[in-house]
Specification:
By secondary structure, this protein is an alpha+beta fold. Helix content is 41%, strand content 19%. The protein is built from 16 helices and 14 strands. The strands form 3 sheets. The protein has a 6-stranded mixed sheet, with helices on both faces. Strand 13 and strand 14 form a beta hairpin. The radius of gyration is 23 Å and the shape is globular. 40% of the residues are buried.
Length: 439
Amino acid sequence: SHTEMFASKAAAQAVRSSVSLRSMTSLTGLQKTYGSPLPPGYQVDDALLSQNPTKVSTLGNGLRVASENLGGETATVGVWIDAGSRYETAENNGTAHFLEHMAFKGTKTRSNQQITQEIENMGGHLNAYTSREQTVYYAKVFKQDVPKAVDLLSDVLQNSVFDTSAINVERDVILREMQEINDMPQELIFDMLHDTAYQGSSLGRTILGPAENIRNITRDSLVNYVKANYVGKKIVVAGAGAVDHAQLSDLVQSKFSGLPAEPPADAAFDYGAAKFVGSGITTRDDDWPLIHCAIAFEGLPWTHPDVFALMVMQSILGQFESSNANAIHSGSRLVSRHAEEKLAESVSAFNTCYTDTGLFGVYLTMPEGSAQDAVWLSMREIVHFIHNASDEYVERGKNLLKANLLFSLDNNAAIAEDIGRQLLTFGRRLTTAEMFARI
């Protein structure tokens, strides 16, 4: 089969001109408990106002410490850094992800074995991940081990030795990981989508980087990237669970205050604005039994007033799996029509937001013989939704979005991630009350 990808600028403009997304700039009315703007006359559920507050402190170097005390016996503490593959050049693309692999391979005071044994002795979990705009290192531990976790994270971020032999080992690991991703259509298709939608910009590059870069990355490459990006004003230390904010702030002050606030002048990097390009990529791989297709319009950045309207639209469109016998009864026309016509194996709406842009669209898997009909049906239902969004449709989408927001915050790790990500993207933590009001 083959893959098809389309990113239509004209279609995106048509969507923007056809859909009247209510601006949220008028939400300047009541200021509730957390200083969140709410629509005039909006009644807030008291249960939403009982949410534990997110406390925020700022060190002298601009690093922010944020936490939500949920009680209990465990806590998640992590470091969220405003640095990912987007903050790379074509020459060093892949460095942020390479750093993630090197994070726990040894510091000036701890060997790889000592780091592993230390976290295991606490009964904890240590991990890291890289996205296009953020790099995250976090630990899940018992409440009494929060000081140890902060010490370990600070050591890993500031004192990693980047041993040459360890670099060579991880180089091979990443190249194998790259091959695995190339065999995973869903992973590959969205890399291709970014490549064509954001041609010529750093946002269009992959997180892993090209194989040639991985083979050429050196210790100096890693050290220079850390100097340019691991600085106070680009870092949030977030905690959730059994976390005392005053204690966490003191711990971070003692361990991270030595970080510079800004990168050296010769290390600063202007990644530039991402420009959406209407375009398409089609490739063929006969080893794939199905066609994988992503169709994207230009979406919205995280801070755009209408971003919650797009989230509701995604919820309304929903997702379809051919194995779900009840899909034909779905309230989503996109889902129910696909269930009736049996043209695709799966269809799902997606909404990906970045600092200054976004991608909104649908992802389909389908047999080759029905590909054109499946794509046509999907686009027809999106256009139908644009012109015929009933109040019932919208209310259902709003309720689904509210439920999914709450379901996504059901553990310490998820809440810590929410805190860290929101402080980097919004500059503050949005309360559930405010999000429900904006929805």
